[in-house]
């Protein structure tokens, strides 16, 4: 099992969460909520209003999201879904645990003792330069005050 941190449309209550609970795509078990240890810019960009975490450590906010344990099948699905490695790149990042629901094994309990876990995160280093000038968010909600409604793939 691998640990994945999601901050956008794959979170509970968001448009693509259905994929996280579709066992035909693999297994994803919700473990808790967290936020990035380092600050990153989270922008909503493109004609489909997609949330992107720009891989610019030290700029922006501590991004809020959810931590999942996923099997290899789900990880492969997420790589395809996220357009990895072209649109997003899957990298390990340090995530501060805010709220833990997972039943921790000895290794996980030790890792979470200081409240920090290493998780795979889909961020991007391949973005148009003008995205750096977009507003930065600490948390993503597809129906947030930003008014930038996410466009589902099936509606594009």
TrEMBL record:
Keyword Hydrolase on entry: no
User: What is the main EC category here?
Assistant: lyase
* Top-rank taxon, per record: Eukaryota
> Mind listing the UniProt keywords for this protein, alphabetically?
Lyase, Transferase
Please name the Pfam families in this protein's record. Answer: GGACT (PF06094)
**GO MF annotation terms:** gamma-glutamylaminecyclotransferase activity; transferase activity
Which reaction(s) are listed as its catalytic activity?
epsilon-(gamma-L-glutamyl)-L-lysine = 5-oxo-L-proline + L-lysine
- What InterPro entries does the record point to? AIG2-like_dom, GGACT, GGCT-like, GGCT-like_sf
Q: What Gene Ontology cellular component terms go with this record?
A: cytosol
| Domain (Gamma-glutamylcyclotransferase AIG2-like): residue spans on this chain | 4-122
Protein's GO biological process: modified amino acid catabolic process
Keyword Transcription regulation applies: no
Function noted in UniProt: Catalyzes the formation of 5-oxo-L-proline from L-gamma-glutamyl-L-epsilon-lysine.
Which PANTHER family does this entry report, sorted A to Z?
GAMMA-GLUTAMYLAMINECYCLOTRANSFERASE (PTHR12510:SF4), TROPONIN C-AKIN-1 PROTEIN (PTHR12510)
Q: What protein name does the entry list? A: Gamma-glutamylaminecyclotransferase
Organism whose genome encodes this protein = Tichodroma muraria
Taxon lineage: Eukaryota, Metazoa, Chordata, Craniata, Vertebrata
């Amino acid at each position: 099992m691998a640990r994945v941190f999601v901050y956008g449309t794959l979170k509970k209550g968001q448009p693509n969460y259905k994929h996280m609970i579709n066992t035909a795509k693999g297994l994803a078990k919700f473990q808790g909520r967290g936020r990035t240890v380092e600050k990153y810019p989270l922008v909503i960009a493109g004609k489909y209003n997609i949330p992107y975490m720009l891989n610019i450590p030290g700029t922006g906010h501590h991004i809020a999201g959810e931590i999942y344990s996923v099997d290899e099948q789900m990880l492969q699905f997420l790589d395809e879904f996220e357009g990895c490695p072209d649109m997003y790149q899957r990298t390990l990042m340090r995530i501060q645990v805010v709220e833990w629901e997972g039943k921790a094994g000895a290794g996980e309990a030790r890792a979470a003792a200081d409240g920090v876990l290493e998780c795979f995160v889909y961020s991007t280093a391949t973005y148009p330069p003008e995205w750096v000038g977009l507003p930065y968010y600490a948390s993503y909600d597809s129906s947030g005050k930003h008014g930038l409604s996410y466009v589902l793939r099936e509606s594009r």
